[in-house]
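FAQ: What does a ligand-bound record look like?

Like this one, built around zinc ion:
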Amino acid sequence: MGKQNKQTVINEKDEINLTDERWQAIVQNDASYNEEFYYAVKTTKIFCLPSCKSRTPNRENVRVFLTQHGAIQENFRPCKRCKPTQESLQDINAVKKIKQYIDEHCNKSLTVKTLAKMIQCSTSDLEHKFHKFYGITLTEYVKQLRFARAMLFLANSDKSIMEIGFEIGIPNTEHHTGMSEKKK
Ligand SMILES: [Zn+2]
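The answer part, i.e. the structure of the complex:
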């Protein structure tokens, strides 16, 4: 295995099993499962909410995903009938752009405000979209990504924890208070 530069903490596929319970939810168009998963149909290349009133597909053609991201990653398109993505595809691309930006710049200080500005939406809007699409809050994502990278640094270097904290963008106040050496 080579060095991973483009590390991410989101499972790119997010595929989960089609259990009997989930299958029943699909057959019965059970809206109470709408927050739990999305189902995609291999033959039509479309993905739906469990509540979708479209014709029930053959069970063997169904794949189930935890997030919209998972289904889109596998090249499924949102159903026009049940609209599993309230957002337009343009919005989804914007959220993807933000995630990519975070992946590449997570060692810098990032604020939701700056990120929201990049795609010209409000901070709450961005938080909402990010969570809906990836199933994790933006703040939590950045935290987990930094943590994962810190672990990687720790495993592969003999730098101190403080140095690593600095590299991955965790501000260290001690660095400023305790280390200010003055030349005599
Ligand atoms: Zn549908």
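Follow-up question: can I read anything off the structure? Yes, for example: The beta strands are 15-16, 38-41, 46-48, 62-65, 77-78.
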